[in-house]
Amino acid sequence: MPEAQQAIPLDDGTVTTPASLAVIQALIPLGLQAVQDRLLADVMALAGPRYARHDAQPDVVRWGAQLGSIFLADQQLPILVPRVRDRAAQ
Predict the structure, then answer these.
(1) What angle do CA 79, 43, 65 make, to 5 degrees?
(2) What backbone torsions phi and psi does residue 75 show, to the nearest 5 degrees?
(3) N- to C-terminal Cα distance for the chain?
(4) Which pLDDT value is given to residue 16?
(5) What is the pLDDT of residues 50-76, one digit of tens each?
(6) Neighbours of 47 (CB within 10 A)
(7) Can you give the pLDDT at residue 18?
(8) What SS3 class is residue 87?
(9) Which distant-in-sequence residues (6+ apart) come within 8 Å of 1 by Cβ?
(10) What does the longest C-alpha to C-alpha distance in the chain come to?
């Protein structure tokens, strides 16, 4: 019976070469961009395109942004999280 593969966390000391650390550090901005793209796609699905006045959901509007954070490669990184408001729910 084959053994199950185990995930190795990045902070266990196995990544010691400068090249490996450079690759990991180069991938962090790509991860942040992927998260930001996903958040903006969700806002677009809920509230429609920016500055649109007559869309399918006129009561759902963009409502600023707030500071948030995500964890990538065992690091907590700041990110700006867009907000959406449903005016009909109040």
Answers:
(1) 40
(2) -125, 140
(3) 58
(4) 62
(5) 887 777 677 888 999 999 999 877 788
(6) 22
(7) 78
(8) helix
(9) none
(10) 61
Q: Which pLDDT belongs to residue 8?
A: 47
3-state SS, residue 89:
helix
SS (HEC) of 8-61: CCCCCCCCCCHHHHHHHHHHHHHHHHHHHHHHHHHHHHHHCCCCCCCCCCCCEE
SS3 62: strand
The stretches in the chain having pLDDT less than 70 are: 1-16, 56
Q: Residue 4 to residues 1, 7, 25, 74: CA-CA distances in angstroms?
A: 9, 10, 28, 23
Rounded to an integer, what distance in angstroms lies between the CA atom of residue 30 and that of residue 36?
A: 10
